[in-house]
Write a structure and sequence with these properties.
One of its GO terms (cellular component) is plasma membrane. Belongs to the DVL/RTFL small polypeptides family. One of its GO terms (biological process) is negative regulation of cell population proliferation. It is a single-pass membrane protein. By secondary structure, the protein is mainly alpha-helical. It has one domain. The chain is 76% helix and 0% strand. It is built from two helices and no strands. The chain is rod-shaped, with a radius of gyration of 17 Å. It starts with a helix and ends in a 6-residue tail after the last helix.
Length: 51
Amino acid sequence: MAETKESAKLERLRSAVRQQKGKLYIIKKCIAMLICGSPKCVFSCTSSVMF
C-alpha cells in the first residue's frame, strides 16, 4: 500500500516537472523572438541567448 502511494506521488512530481519544462521552453522561445525581432530567427538566436 505504501508503495502505491509513493508511486502516485512520484508520478505527480514527474508531471509537474514536465509542465514546468514546457513553460520554460515557451518562455525561452518568446524571449529569443523578442531579442531577434523575427519568428524566423528564433532557432538561430536561441544558441546566443544564455539560459
